[in-house]
Amino acid sequence: MKDIKVLVVDDSALMRKIISDMINSSENMEVLDIARNGQDMLNKLSRLKPDVITLDVEMPVMDGITALREMKKNKLNIPVIMISSVSQSGTALTMECLEAGAFDFIPKPSGSISLDIDKVKDELLLKIKTACEKVNVKSTFKTSAARVEKSVDVSTKSNLTGKIEAVVIGASTGGPKALYSVITALPEKLGVPVFIVQHMPVGFTKAFADRLNLNSSIKVVEASEGESVEKDVVYIAPGGLHMEVHADRKIHLNTEPTLWGVRPAVDKLFISASKVYSSHLLSIVLTGMGKDGAQGTVEIKKNGGITVAEDKSTCTIYGMPKAAYETGMVDMVVSLDNVAGQIIRIVSGR
């Protein structure tokens, strides 16, 4: 008997068949049932108890975001992986779905009917497995019980040679929701630029930046090649491109090989920024799988910067923050609800 039961929701019979075949090919998961739209899904959830749901974003009768909100209203705490097309409406709705509680998303490689969706098979199966494991351990974002493992009063650190001139942040799985809570809590006049690498496919980072900008006091943009760095602006690395900051204080994007299997990579940003800002740099590693950001954390600490990692208790996935912490180069471990406050405090020198 297979361990993970999945409910597949898509308005296309062909897509339901292909996605179901991918899931059923796994040794430890199987499709429990299928649904044709959000309303059909809700009807079936009255009698079914899947471990994970794959949910199409754009559907007739009831779309993905409406279905998610109904699930939340009915207290159906089942992890959801969104299946999204890279269209203007699809990417915008995907960002709403992540805010509404979706665990993660998978892009359809070539539109709403993607005959080549098998390209993302391994990624889909990994995210289904990860979502199921996460829920089995504990529910996400119980910040009231946050546990701070390590904290240093940065105002007394002897290697802090001057005020912070820039902030760099890295995140992956669970990052969109985490970044939304951090960036929307920052003031309009923070006094420094903020650079963010969020592991996200091509086509989605513009919608992510636009969503953040719409709901934040501070300005948020998707970064552009050669763009001059300005204070009080948050720069999001475009999907598919590494983002670096050079001595000319401009943003440089490139298609160099992936690092840790991803592009953009957090380490590319962190290491380049550490060369420019030296001891005047603050770094934060948020939730995510893997170890991207650990090398960069080491380099930033070597150059006298301040390094922060998200606490395990609030991480969707405690992979990247754990890897950073285990380098021994992290100054502070902070629960997600305290990250924005620490940024403001450290940047202001309080």
UniProtKB/TrEMBL annotation:
<keyword id="KW-0145">Chemotaxis</keyword>
<feature type="domain" description="Response regulatory">
    <location>
        <begin position="5"/>
        <end position="123"/>
    </location>
</feature>
<feature type="active site">
    <location>
        <position position="292"/>
    </location>
</feature>
<dbReference type="InterPro" id="IPR001789">
    <property type="entry name" value="Sig_transdc_resp-reg_receiver"/>
</dbReference>
<dbReference type="InterPro" id="IPR008248">
    <property type="entry name" value="CheB-like"/>
</dbReference>
<keyword id="KW-0597">Phosphoprotein</keyword>
<protein>
    <recommendedName>
        <fullName>Protein-glutamate methylesterase/protein-glutamine glutaminase</fullName>
        <ecNumber>3.1.1.61</ecNumber>
        <ecNumber>3.5.1.44</ecNumber>
    </recommendedName>
</protein>
<keyword id="KW-0378">Hydrolase</keyword>
<keyword id="KW-0963">Cytoplasm</keyword>
<feature type="active site">
    <location>
        <position position="199"/>
    </location>
</feature>
<comment type="function">
    <text>Involved in chemotaxis. Part of a chemotaxis signal transduction system that modulates chemotaxis in response to various stimuli. Catalyzes the demethylation of specific methylglutamate residues introduced into the chemoreceptors (methyl-accepting chemotaxis proteins or MCP) by CheR. Also mediates the irreversible deamidation of specific glutamine residues to glutamic acid.</text>
</comment>
<dbReference type="InterPro" id="IPR000673">
    <property type="entry name" value="Sig_transdc_resp-reg_Me-estase"/>
</dbReference>
<dbReference type="InterPro" id="IPR011006">
    <property type="entry name" value="CheY-like_superfamily"/>
</dbReference>
<feature type="active site">
    <location>
        <position position="172"/>
    </location>
</feature>
<comment type="function">
    <text>May play the central regulatory role in sporulation. It may be an element of the effector pathway responsible for the activation of sporulation genes in response to nutritional stress. Spo0A may act in concert with spo0H (a sigma factor) to control the expression of some genes that are critical to the sporulation process.</text>
</comment>
<comment type="similarity">
    <text>Belongs to the CheB family.</text>
</comment>
<dbReference type="Pfam" id="PF01339">
    <property type="entry name" value="CheB_methylest"/>
</dbReference>
<feature type="domain" description="CheB-type methylesterase">
    <location>
        <begin position="159"/>
        <end position="350"/>
    </location>
</feature>
<feature type="modified residue" description="4-aspartylphosphate">
    <location>
        <position position="56"/>
    </location>
</feature>
<dbReference type="Pfam" id="PF00072">
    <property type="entry name" value="Response_reg"/>
</dbReference>
<dbReference type="InterPro" id="IPR035909">
    <property type="entry name" value="CheB_C"/>
</dbReference>
